[in-house]
Structures are given as structure tokens and as C-alpha cells.
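Data deposition worksheet. Section B asks for the primary sequence of the deposited chain exactly as it was used as input, without tags or linkers unless they were present during the calculation. Section C holds the resulting structure in C-alpha cell form. Section D is free text for depositor observations; keep each observation to a single sentence. Incomplete worksheets are returned to the depositor.
Section A, Depositor: J.P.
Section B:
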Amino acid sequence: PEEGAKVAKGDEIVTIESVKAASDISAPLDGQITEVNEAIVDNPALVNEDPTEAGWFFKMSLADAGDLDGLMDEAAYLEFIA
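Section C:
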């Protein structure tokens, strides 16, 4: 996405392409894109190698921070995928 773009929850804003498939990434909540990680454009492997540090896609400010209450934290996610 472009920095400054306003997005709504569910908007398709990033497409990940691999040899076998392409997948869309949707905005998790309503807000505005504040930063895009250009490093993954030059080195897409960062997404798999370091997903919690260098492999992030974008940062955004939220229209309503209260919407975070409906999302999983890391512990809940790890339990979900176990």
C-alpha cells in the first residue's frame, strides 16, 4: 500500500506471490497506512526469515484503538495454530 492511504477492515492491500500461488493480505482494521517496509520488496525472504522483526509489511494508525480488543495476541495465535 501507499503511505497515507486510508484502508478499511478487509480491504485487500498487499499481494504475496510465490512460485505456486498468490495470496492477498487484508487490512486487519480500519485506519491509515503510516509506513511501508521497502526492505521486503528488495528481500522478500525476510517475511519467512524474520517475521516478527524485519519481515513486517506495513504499519498503520487505527481509526479506533478499541478495535484491537477483537484481535488475537501472539499467545492466543500460537495456541490456535498448535
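Section D:
The beta strands are 6-7, 12-17, 22-26, 31-36, 58-62.
DSSP finds three helices and five strands in the chain.
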